[in-house]
């Protein structure tokens, strides 16, 4: 009779496989998941530019730059604005101690501002000096800050407030509703008329 093989080697292999499976199954699932990405912090100079642009004390005008309407200001007005309102620089955090020229140069390097120059550089007949606020601008070749007859246009899209967005949606709907008023049902017409009359009486009573 042939000798029976000892099952010792096969049992050892099974034990090793089972122990490896237990180790693999017992891993912490959180160790395989990649770390969550933290939300990117918004650039402080972008926030600064938005705040300065929305500020009413900075005098600005609209002009045409390469067939595009842009909002621009003068360099000397920017310097006087930051001197009169130093609290605006607090939004820059660690960069708030920079000089006005350095802040403007950073805005230019980040393409938040574009230095412009007047298209018409000669005095027109009948005038004694150049226009203070030219209507047509062109890009200045040297993109550095200056307060000597220099103009700077905002190079980012201004965020619209929520009420403006809602209002831009409401006006077309209101116009369409007014145009369709003649075809309204009779009860609906009476309801609108009585409502308008009630609002007018309320206004008159408040005035009186």
From TrEMBL:
**Keyword Transport (UniProt):** yes
Q: What cellular component GO annotations does this protein have?
A: endoplasmic reticulum membrane
For bias kind Basic and acidic residues, which ranges apply?
1-12
The Swiss-Prot or TrEMBL record describes its family as follows: Belongs to the SEC62 family.
Annotated membrane topology: Multi-pass membrane protein
Task: Name the chain's protein.
Answer: Translocation protein SEC62
Q: Where is this region: Disordered?
A: 1-40
Major subcellular site: endoplasmic reticulum
List where in the cell it is found.
Endoplasmic reticulum membrane
Q: Where are the transmembrane segments?
A: 166-184, 190-207
The record's keywords, sorted A to Z, are: Endoplasmic reticulum, Membrane, Protein transport, Translocation, Transmembrane, Transmembrane helix, Transport
* Source organism: Linum tenue
Repeat found in the keyword field? no
Swiss-Prot/TrEMBL GO biological process terms: post-translational protein targeting to membrane, translocation
């Amino acid at each position: 009779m042939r000798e029976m093989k000892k099952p010792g080697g096969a049992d050892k292999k099974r034990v090793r496989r089972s122990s490896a499976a237990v180790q693999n199954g017992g891993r912490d699932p959180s160790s395989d998941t990649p770390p969550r990405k933290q939300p990117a912090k918004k650039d402080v100079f972008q926030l600064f530019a938005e705040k300065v642009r929305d500020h009413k004390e900075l005098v600005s005008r609209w002009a045409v730059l390469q067939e595009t309407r842009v909002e621009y200001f003068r360099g000397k007005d920017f310097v006087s604005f930051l001197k009169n309102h130093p609290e605006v620089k607090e939004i820059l955090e660690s960069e708030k101690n920079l000089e006005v020229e350095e802040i403007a140069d950073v805005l230019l390097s980040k393409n938040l501002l574009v230095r412009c120059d007047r298209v018409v550089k000669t005095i027109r007949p009948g005038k004694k000096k150049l226009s203070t606020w030219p209507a047509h601008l062109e890009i200045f070749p040297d993109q550095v800050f200056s307060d000597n007859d220099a103009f700077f246009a905002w190079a980012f899209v201004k965020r619209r407030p929520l009420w403006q967005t809602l209002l831009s949606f409401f006006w077309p709907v209101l116009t369409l509703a007014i145009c369709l008023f003649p075809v309204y049902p009779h009860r609906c017409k009476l309801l609108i008329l009585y409502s308008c009359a009630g609002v007018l009486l309320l206004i008159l009573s408040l005035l009186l």
